[in-house]
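User: Here's a chain of 118 residues. Predict its fold as tokens.
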Amino acid sequence: MKVGRVAFLGLAGMLAMASCEEKEVTSDCFQAVVLDQGCGTVLAVLDTAAARIVDTKPNNDTVYVNTFDLHPVYQVPGKTLYITMRAMSQSEAPDCPGFIPIIYPHVKVLSVSETPCN
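Assistant: Prediction complete.
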């Protein structure tokens, strides 16, 4: 009987902890083109819906963002990528000594692919 109670309490505790986990909000999958690399990588996201994620206004049909975590294999100007992302605060962004940054909203790339998303 005691074993059953302990097992039940243990299971209830695990479920309570699992429900408290923060879930990272992911974006839709967006087509993006690598523009430039310096302190981070500038991406042109080709969907105005991305502007809502980074709280900015699109420039025509493009939203320009900067990311610091794109793998070097993808950091090729002109390369088309398909990404999911989340906004990143200025305080999360690394310092860039020696660079005069063009200020674009910072994003964390959550997933990247060279083929269109399903």
